[in-house]
Write a structure and sequence with these properties.
Helices cover 83% and strands 0% of the residues. It is mainly alpha-helical.
């Protein structure tokens, strides 16, 4: 079960990143171009926040139930805080991603409550942009970029290298 949840968590990362980039670009171009807030803006912001929520739910399942990394770290919390890798998984990754989700939801809420189209785009651009930067800072880039079932088999990778 661990590998399935981890693979899905890894896949959803790309949905979050693509939706976040699109949401930020749309918000910035609409804000600077003085375009009206439309249903597409609403939808991409919603996709970004919902994908991020799914990602966090999967991450919390890994964190509290399935991951042998956090299980090991919780067994000796003090020692885990002294190990940079364990500390990343136990505290930093979780904290950074929760902050990012808060920023994305703040942007979604404030853009809906804005009294003008420009204010909606401005708030979306600022908060979605901050959320995206925070997400990029918290992603474990040292791990595989794709779930293992999507990576090329070892023999093909060797031939292409």
């Amino acid at each position: 079960m661990y590998s399935s949840v981890l693979a899905f968590h890894n896949l959803i990362r790309w949905v979050v990143l693509v939706a976040g980039v699109i949401a930020v670009i749309r918000a910035i171009t609409a804000w600077t171009g003085k375009r009206a807030w439309d249903t597409q803006d609403k939808r991409i912001g919603l996709l970004f926040t919902v994908a991020l929520d799914v990602q966090i739910l999967l991450g919390l399942l890994l964190y509290g139930v399935f991951s042998p990394i956090t299980t090991h770290a919780f067994a000796n919390f003090g020692a885990a805080m002294g190990d940079a890798t364990l500390r990343f998984w136990l505290v930093e990754h979780l904290s950074i991603m929760l902050v990012a989700a808060g920023l994305a939801h703040t942007g979604q809420t404030l853009s809906k409550k804005a009294t003008s189209h420009q204010a909606s785009h401005q708030r979306a651009a600022i908060f979605f942009g901050l959320a995206l930067v925070t997400i990029l800072a918290g992603i474990p880039w040292f791990r595989s970029l794709l779930p293992q079932f999507l990576e090329l088999p070892g023999i093909l990778t060797g031939l292409l290298a």
